[in-house]
């Protein structure tokens, strides 16, 4: 085996597939460059590739319902949102400080979109994330509780420095479900960040959780270290329907 073949073989064995693919062409163009510069360039491409693979894995595992970033979010359509607050959240400082975020507002105003954008930024920053709807969360917790695996599940969730619990309030919870939701909130309190979204104002959470004492205990923990983004505006979905000339709500169902 000559040296050329051996180098390719070594690169393959070490899993340095990017270097293996680009090396021949790059060496042609970089003939006069110092060795260190060549080495630096090849390793840089390898590290970039590794990073994007890790991000892709995190996103695949995240459960995010779609992939959207702030780039496609039209702030001019939703003037009640302070851009400064969202930009500050995008620095990911809230995750390092183990703080929460709550997006409140009626349907279609961008609560899930903004949560997903923050989740994606976290994944880009090498932070593990997990998205789940409130309904799904309590279903899972209930099943785990019945099979004595609740603490195991909460410990699994604790591996995520950021969780997104979407759509609190679309379905009222039973007493048992509220209790399990409380345990989830408690388990993350001051330890890990969580983004919560809801179409209900905090004063209505008593109805959602079926018990005002339970709602106070939950909100007390969520809001202790928290940014609340209250979105007051029109549905973006409705705007898109209007553009298409269809404003009949019953036809939208
Ligand atoms: N300001 C905006 N700019 C661009 N797209 C937007 C904006 N607001 C919402 N959207 C888009 O409109 C759709 C609905 O938004 P989203 O799912 O975030 O709403 P939501 O507040 O979570 O509503 P729901 O309470 O019904 O779940 C999505 O496709 C989202 O990307
Ligand atoms: Mg939503």
List keywords for this structure.
elongated, Rossmann fold, 13 helices, alpha/beta, 2 domains, binds magnesium ion, binds adenosine-5'-triphosphate, single chain, 253 residues
Put the structure in a nutshell.
The chain has 253 residues and is an alpha/beta fold. It has helices at residues 3-13, 17-29, 35-62, 83-90, 93-96, 111-124, 134-146, 150-157, 175-188, 205-209, 212-224, 236-243, 249-252; strands at residues 100-104, 129-133, 162-168, 193-198, 226-230. The protein is 57% helix and 11% strand.
Write the layout of secondary structure elements.
Elements lengths: L2 H11 L3 H13 L5 H28 L20 H8 L2 H4 L3 E5 L6 H14 L4 E5 H13 L3 H8 L4 E7 L6 H14 L4 E6 L6 H5 L2 H13 L1 E5 L5 H8 L5 H4 L1
Parallel strand pairs: 1-4, 1-5, 2-3, 3-4
Helix pairs in contact: 2-3, 3-6, 7-8, 7-9, 9-11
The structure holds adenosine-5'-triphosphate and magnesium ion (MG).
Bound molecules: adenosine-5'-triphosphate, magnesium ion
CATH topology of the largest domain: Rossmann fold
- Residues in helix, %: 55-70%
Low-confidence stretches: none
Walk me through the structure.
It is a single chain. This protein has 253 residues and is of the alpha/beta class. It folds into two domains: 3-61, no CATH class; 63-243, 3-Layer(aba) Sandwich (Rossmann fold), CATH 3.40.50.300. It is built from 13 helices and five strands. It has helices spanning 3-13, 17-29, 35-62, 83-90, 93-96, 111-124, 134-146, 150-157, 175-188, 205-209, 212-224, 236-243, 249-252, and strands at 100-104, 129-133, 162-168, 193-198, 226-230. It has a five-stranded parallel β-sheet. The longest helix has 28 residues, at 35-62. The radius of gyration is 24 Å and the shape is elongated. It binds adenosine-5'-triphosphate and magnesium ion. Magnesium ion binds next to helix 6 and strand 3.
């Amino acid at each position: 085996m000559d040296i050329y073949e051996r180098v390719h073989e070594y690169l393959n064995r070490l899993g340095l597939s990017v270097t293996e693919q680009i090396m021949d062409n790059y060496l042609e163009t970089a003939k006069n460059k110092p060795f260190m510069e060549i080495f630096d360039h090849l390793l840089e491409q390898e590290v970039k590739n590794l990073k994007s693979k890790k991000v892709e894995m995190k996103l695949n595992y995240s459960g995010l319902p779609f992939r959207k970033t702030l780039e496609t979010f039209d702030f001019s359509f939703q003037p009640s949102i302070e851009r400064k607050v969202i930009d500050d959240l995008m620095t990911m400082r809230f995750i390092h400080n183990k703080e929460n975020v709550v997006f409140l507002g009626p349907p279609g105003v961008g609560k899930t979109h903004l949560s997903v954008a923050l989740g994606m930024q976290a994944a880009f920053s090498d932070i593990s994330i997990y998205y789940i709807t409130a309904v799904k969360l309590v279903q899972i917790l209930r099943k785990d509780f019945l099979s004595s695996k609740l603490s195991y599940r909460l410990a699994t969730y604790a591996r995520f420095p950021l969780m997104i619990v979407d759509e609190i309030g679309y379905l009222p919870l039973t007493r048992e479900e509220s209790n399990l939701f409380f345990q989830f909130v408690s388990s993350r309190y001051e330890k890990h960040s969580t983004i919560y979204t809801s179409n209900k104002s905090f004063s209505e959470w008593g109805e959602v959780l079926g018990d005002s004492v339970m709602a106070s205990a939950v909100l007390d923990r969520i809001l202790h270290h928290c940014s609340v983004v209250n979105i007051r505006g029109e549905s973006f979905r409705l705007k898109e329907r209007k553009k298409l000339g269809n404003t009949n709500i019953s036809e939208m169902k």
